[in-house]
Each structure stands twice: as C-alpha cells, then as structure tokens.
Write a structure and sequence with these properties.
Four copies of one chain form a homotetramer. The first copy, chain A, is of the alpha+beta class and 277 residues long. In chain A, 27% of the residues lie in helices and 28% in strands.
C-alpha cells in the first residue's frame, strides 16, 4: 500500500479501512498466499531526515508497537507491506520496505529460482553497495540492482533494466517466469506503482480515483468527504467496497503520482539486457 | 496435542503428520479461529528434572528454533499447543503449556468474560501461588485455580471443581457459557484429556485407537507399523486421514492414559461450587 | 528520562547526548544494575489521541525500530525508560511506561518482596481496573494502585497514599525497605518527577537548569543555545558533563514542570495508610 | 565454548559453572566487548539427525527457552556462543554456530573491514553454496569459504587456506590485521579449537586438563569427581577458578579432541593464497 497526499494518521489507512492491509493479512482474497503473517514493514516520510522505517516479524494483527506508531504518526507519504515469506528466513532485515537515502521500495510478489541466480544477481550489484545487503530476500537484491541501474535518476527505466536483467539471467539458467508482482517506490516526493509478471497473471494493483470523482460518486461517505485533490492510495487490493472508486492498473504498466497530485500512466516493459547498465 | 508412549522425535508428530498441529495453524478446518498464529508452546518429559518448556510468540510455521528442538529431542510424553489469542497480549508468558513442578496443562478454548470475573478468580487462588501468575490469560488463572483445587492429587476432580467455580462466578455476574474447550494435562506419568463446554458445541477431541487395532486396520502404513502397545495420541483434530484410527471423545467426558498403556474413560461434570475447596 | 518543552526529535535526547539513556544502559555509573538490557520503553505526546507507546524487549542499543522512531518523531513531552528486570519476566507488557488514557508512569527502582505482597496490593486495586493488569511487574501494580488512589486528580497525593499503603502492607508481612526509586509521571501537560526510598540512599534524580541560566553558563554550546524557556529535562543521571546545568532533586521530594515552564518543588512523604483511599 | 565427552545436561556447563559463558556475557573480564548481549547460539549433537541449533537474539541471561532447553537436553558434544555484534544486525541468522550437514562453527572475534572485502570473499565461495548465506556477518562468509576450501575433509588446512585468503584479500585493499579470534569447529565426532590473530594479541583460548590430572589436583571437588577420561572443555575463558585445571592454547596453534579422548596439538599458520583452492 502507498499513500500520497495530505498528512494522515497512518492507522487510518493501515488499520481502519473496510478491508485493510492488516485484515488482508488474515483473509486475503485476491492475494496468492492466504496468510501473510511473516512480518510487516512501514516506511514513512514527514518528520526527520529521510523516511523512517518500522519492520517487524510479529504478525501485523498482534503487534502493539505497530498500532501505537500508526495511531500517533502522521504522514503525507508512506508505504506499507505485509510479508508472506517464500523461502527466506523471517527476520526484520527481510522485511520491506528497503531503503537507500530517501528512496523506499516494496514488492508484493517474488523473484523465482533465487537459489540458482542469486550469485549472478549479487555480482551485478555496484561493488560499493554490495556490503549493504543485510538480508536474504529476492527483493532486497532486486532493490540494490535497481539502485545500480539508476533508480534514483529514473526509477521506471531502472526497474525495466533490472527486471530485464533478472529475466535474462534466468534464461541463462534455463528458467522462465522469473518475476512476479507489484512494486511500490517513492523518494518522498513522488509515488510509483508498477504491475508486472514475466509470465501469467500479474498480482493486482489499484489506484484510487481522484478526490473529485470519488466525492461525486459518494457524497455521503464521511471519509471520502475528507479527501483533497492530490490524495491517492495505491493498493494491491481495494480497501473499501466502493465501486467506481478504484482504477485497476493494467499488467505491464506503471503509474506515478507527483506531490501536488499530477498523475501519469506509462507502459512497463523490461529491457532485454545481459548485463546491468 | 498430547503424546504418551515410546520415545519419539517430537517433530514426527508436530511437523510430520498428514494434518499436523502446525499445518492446522494455517488451515484449521474444525477449529474455531482460522489462523492460530499467536504463539506455540511445547512441554516435554524425558531428560532433566521435570518437564521442559518451549514457548514462543513466533508463529509455529516460521520458527527455526522450534523445528530444531523438535528434530533433536525425543520424548515419551509431551504436550503441544498452538495459540489463537483472544483478548490478551501475545507474549511468551501467555503461551501454553502452563507448568508447576511436574505438571503441565494446555487448553484449546477460552474462559468467557474474563474482564468481569478475573478478579474473583484470582482472589480464589491459593495465596501462596498468587504471585506465580506471570501473564494475563484466562487459562493461566484456570491452571492456578486447578492447583488450588488439588490438581496434583486428582486432576479430574480438581478441574470439575475449578470449572464449576468459574461457572458459578460467571452466573454471579449475570453471564453464562463461561467455559469452552478441551484440556490436556500431564504429570509425566499419565496423560489426561478433557472435553467440555458450558454451553453449545464443545471443541473436538480425539484419541488414537490402540496400536493393535490400528495395525490390523492399516498393515501397510509405515508409521502405524512402528506403533507399540501403550502409544496414544490425543488431538484436537485427527492428524491423519485414517478412518477407524480415531475415537472421538464425547463432550462432558475425559480420558486418561497411564504410562504402560492402560486407558480409562470417565464423565466430566463441573461441581456447582461458589467457593474453591 | 522525561522531556517537556519545545518539540524535539526524540533521538536528540535518547541517542545523541554525551551520556545518553542508551549509553547508560551499557555503562551506567550511578545506577544500581550495571547493564540495563532487559527492555526499553517510550511514551510520547504530540500527534494522535493521547500518548503513543513503544515498548520492546530488544536491548535499547541494538533495536533499529527504536532508532528509526526516535529519528522521525518529534514530541514536546515524552518519557523514556531502560529496564533492568528484577525478578519478573522480560516481556513487552513488563516494560515501562504504563499508560491509562492520557497518563504515563515510569519507575527507576523496585518494590521489594513482591512475592509476599502482590496479592494484597492487587486486591486493593479498583475492581474495575483489576483486569487491566497485563504483566507481572511491581511497577504496573503500583501504577494501578496510584490510579485507584486518584493519580488523575492529584498525582503527588496519590503516590504518597500508594507508597504509604505499600509500606504498610510490607510491615504487615514483617518487611521494611519496600520502595526504592524515582518516578516520572505525565498527563501530556505537566511532568512530575519523584525521588524517594523507604530506606537508605534513593536513586538519583536531576532536573536541568532553566534555559536562561544554562545559556549564561555555556554561551558557546550549540545545543544549549537552542534551548527555550520552559524546556526541562528530568533524568536519573546527567546526560552531559555541564557543571551547573543540573539541579539534584533531593530524596523525599518531587518536582513538577507545567506546560509553559512553571516549576514547583514539593516534599514527598508517603502517608501511613493501611487501606487505599 | 565446546564440550566433548560423556553426555551432560547442557545447563551444567552453560549456566552452572563458577564463571559461566552466560555470566561472562555480563561481566566478561578477559573478553574484548564488555557486554555480549546481542544473541546466543547453541549447536548440539546427540539425538536426531546431525546437530540441532538454537539461535536467539534474546540476551542469554534472560531467555527462558534457552534455560529450559539446556536443562532438558543432554549432549556428548556441543558448541555454545555468546555474540557481541560488531557492525551487523542483531538477528538469528547472524548468530553462531553456523551449520552445514554435520559441521558446526563458532567464532569469538571478527574479520575486519568487511565492508571493503565482503564482495571479494563472497565471490570466492563455491557457487553452489552462495545462496546458502542467509545473514550478514563476517563469520558466516568465513564459514562458507572454509567449506569451499575443504572444511569437511581437513578443517585445519581449510581454515589455514581460508584465513590466508582473507588476509591476502585485505592486503589487496591496503588493510592488515584482518582476522582476530578463536574458532570452535565440530563434525559430531571431533572438536577443534583454533587460536589466531593476524596482528596483535589473539583472544584467549583454554582447554581443560585431562580428567585424571584434574582429579589428582582436586580430589574433593564434586564436579571434578564426575569427570571421565575423554571429557574436555574448550573455552574462551576458564569457567572455574581451578589453578592447574586449564591449559592455555598458544596463539597461532590449534587443538583437536577426538571422540574417545585422544588429543592433538598442531601449529596454525594461514597460507598466503590469492585465490581459494
């Protein structure tokens, strides 16, 4: 989940929605793993230098520290993630978001066959960043590859190069279907969402309609009334049953919301690259 | 789950059954809470003085220390429990089993309206044991009441007095339906199972058929072949689909398996007592 | 530690002082237990309803979530506490601060012989609050007794009654020297510090000199220059070697700092009461 | 600490010695970091397949699960380690021992400048093992390099090649003093101890005298009386003040104790190798 817009108490969106990211961790209907209880992570902008990070291996539904933080921190831009571990240990350094300076990344999905390609991927990470890798997830490696590929200059291009490289590496090992999922990325000013799968159905991704349209559709909904222009929520699954309030982001595409509200859609197609730029 | 019989590697029964107590923590079909991810506890007899205890708030399916312990400890008698927290914090001291000297107790269920009756119940605990209460669950209080009522001399009678007292206390506060669930109790020599509910359907409880009968039914099943007379498994839900291998314990009744294999069934009816014996 | 005054990033005072509360958890010189590594707690006012709470059993020096929160949350009033467990389990519900509505309490010290008096103390807690006790520390029980004794109306009087009751209860059991330590209390507007011991040397407590005096003493100190009237820090041990900057609070006395800066000193003498008011 | 000999309850040596490894975690006198509270690890042989592993980030002195396991598990060969994190996160996958099949390794010390050389070291790990690295410590990388260098065939030679390679890699980056510390290694049959430092004073390492000699020196010591031929304890610091009972292992040397008691000393000198064998 990613929020950009007016400052809100984080709990309003993480705990107090009809179908919350935390509810979803128990009964995720559109998601692939039915119980996402292997950790929770939050990256939020607002006070202090760069984004703050809260990552815990306690299941989201029973973590008092998370509830407290969410109830007492306001933020105009944050990313939240519920983890279902696929093959790597449950530990805080394996929780998303991953962070470098002002940049955050979350990933709902996986990179397949990491056991075969992890070495190749890590060798392609900028040597100056190699020792920054602290955990053992696929996403952390992907994040450092993306940084190596210029995430901080042009995140979409960097991710296209990165995923292309991962797919090429997989093919070298005789594997396909390497990458699945949606990504949330931010630098504190803008919020990107990417929806992609190498093969098959890509995990879902939705963005909330602009405040105006939502208020015309639902003039009596108290929460919708509070929305301001520029407020956008990007989610794996809609957090409220409000038909017309959610725009599905097509597979192989991305969106970016800029601070102030400007919204762009663009295609997302990995580049076939054998070596990272 | 409770095992009594020949020493077995704990993992054989906790992790390596067709429908394990750990599997059940993800997809519990007969259970009331669909995801029991609020902690795991194990009490085992064998080596050292009295039973050992392992209690963790990590969900059972992702706890490496639990897997390691289960794979490297053999025990002729142990109790395992997966917790779904209902109203009290997720912390190790709120995990079952509860222990006093050689005695262990696990409880799959709840005591209702604890917020109303907790004070009354705790005041009835033997003053010498009062300060031993370390957590905030209903079951821990019930355990210390049972000790006060003579658990160590006659567990069934003690539990009948205890549950009767809890029900009487509830009625004083205008509540019914106070106690629900199944209990596993052991002293290192015998293993008791109790199935009871004040009102409505009691949670399920099964005991495995004796080794002889199981081997006649399933002569080609490798695991069944290894069974010896005296081996018994008491479970909330059958851990393998073997028709005829499981005997359902009726509600309002109890069983006890003695070291060596002798098995007794008895009724279980709480005594209407206003004050603990 | 307690801070009241202008909003500051929590890390400025928890991590970035010459002798910080976190440094002290490793090499506490004036403290009684040399390594306070059994948990950390933080209660802060500012955003959201009432104070937020962060309590963790990870030692303060190695908890990334604590560092992150402290670096990205600003607060005009907060209490921090490093725990050295004396006799009760290390669990989050045994970490300070304890909270009820807008009120927080931390305690650096102990109540002796809890095993003997816990039952008597808990029976004196307002029955409506009894089931709110979640952990097993002495301080949590003291907190609920103080609430029972009117903490929310007059904290000093309530603490005098409470400690007097604890001491009287101890004497009934043939014990003296029941209470030791310093207390920090707040309601989000005012900050109280109490220094007391039933017998012997009371743990230390200091309050920072007013901003004016400090700036005259240390005109070249960058941090001191940032101070404003009304800014006060109450600490167990001075966080910087600045002679003249710290006023020691005498044993058997208390201070209160009001929002806006007004400071009062008063004596603190427990009332000899057999039963809570 | 490493024990080889008759099966003993693990707690006898981890918790119940005059100066225990757990005591030492609070007041380590000969050690370099005064408080080793960043985790504890235990690897033990005996029951089940290969060694069991218990690794926890809870400080050793306050971990009930560790005490329980130690009090209820007997082992004829085990390694225990208390961690003081130097630069890498406190997480279970960063706790020692590290394990591969039947082999365990613990390290009391560090590899310097890992941020500079981590990439070079990881690239030298056998590509088939690369993705087994789960954490971010220096020791885990050293362990996988040692496996690559034939640890399972000849541990001393493999460690000489490994440390030589690390030192050569450091020199390539303009650094010296790369490796410091003592190592404990076992395969379930034999127990090796290595004492080494690239530069300066190597951390201490001691081995207990043979049972015979100890019983002649201390005929009235109850614990010493229980010793049998073949019992040996290898420790960073003596666990009891028994002059003559401890033989200091010289720096740049190693010992091995074989199941049955045979003891060998040998020199330990890293090979100057630019590339792993």
């Amino acid at each position: 989940m990613g929020w950009i817009g007016q400052p809100v108490l984080i709990e309003e969106l993480v705990f107090k929605t009809q179908h919350g990211i935390v509810d979803q961790s128990l009964h995720s209907k559109l998601g692939a793993e039915t119980t996402n209880g292997d950790g929770f992570g939050l990256g939020w902008y607002g006070t202090g230098e760069g984004p703050g990070l809260y990552r815990s291996i306690s299941p989201a539904w029973s973590d008092p520290n998370l509830r407290e933080l969410a109830a007492h921190v306001q933020s105009p831009l944050f990313l939240a993630h519920v983890r279902a571990a696929i093959g790597s240990p449950v530990q805080e350094t394996n929780c998303h978001p991953f962070r470098k300076d002002d940049w955050l990344l979350v990933h709902n999905g996986y990179v397949a066959d990491m056991h075969l390609i992890r070495r190749d991927l890590m060798m392609a990470i900028d040597p100056d960043h190699f020792a920054d890798v602290q955990g053992s997830t696929d996403t952390e490696v992907l994040f450092y590859l993306a940084l190596t590929n210029g995430l901080m200059e042009d995140p979409i291009a960097a991710m296209e190069r990165t995923i292309g490289f991962i797919e090429a590496t997989g093919r070298r090992h005789g594997r396909t279907g390497m990458v699945q999922g949606t990504f949330g990325i931010s630098n504190g000013e803008d919020l990107w969402g990417i929806r992609y799968a190498t093969e098959g159905a890509a995990r879902s991704l939705f963005i909330s309609t602009d405040a105006d349209a939502m208020q015309r559709l639902y003039p009596d909904n108290a929460r919708v009334t509070l929305l301001k222009p520029g407020d956008r929520l990007i989610v794996s699954e809609p957090v409220a049953d409000l038909p017309g309030a959610w725009e599905e982001i097509p597979a192989h595409s991305a969106v970016v919301v800029h601070r102030g509200g400007e919204l762009d859609h663009m295609p997302f197609e990995p580049l076939d690259v054998a070596v990272a730029a």
